[in-house]
Predict the 3D structure of the following.
Amino acid sequence: MLDKLSKNEIINLLPHREPMLLIDELINIEKLKSAKAIVNVKKNSFYVQGHFPGQPVMPGVLIVEAFGQAAAALTAHGIDKSTYENKLVFLMSVEKARFRNPVVPDCKLELQIEAIRSHGRVWKYKGEAFVDGKKMADAQWSATIVDRK
């Protein structure tokens, strides 16, 4: 099993495309259990251009989106292709989201994610976001795999 997924490999697993594909790499993959996602937060990223001019910050809602994308890639990478082919992963709930420090460009945001449990097509995850070892955010969330229409 691969220990690392590049952005191109992530594109093959997820329906997200630029500019909404936020994760650049998935590393330290433990099949269907955990992984670390890398998000390169740049000064020219679409979400920092107007949030906030003169003092750019990555929106917290996009940190949660990046958590979700990382979890979807971890899950899709670990399950049989026929299970996720022609499917989408939808966020169902976000719980206990805390934003502890602002994420400012240029930095490498590291998301440590873990699958807590699964029941059928519903998965529950938790994650923590770090920059240079400092915790920036954490959350728990649930997602489901649904058929594409």
Notes: Residues 7 and 142 are 23 Å apart (CA to CA). The chain has one domain: 4-147. The radius of gyration is 15 Å.
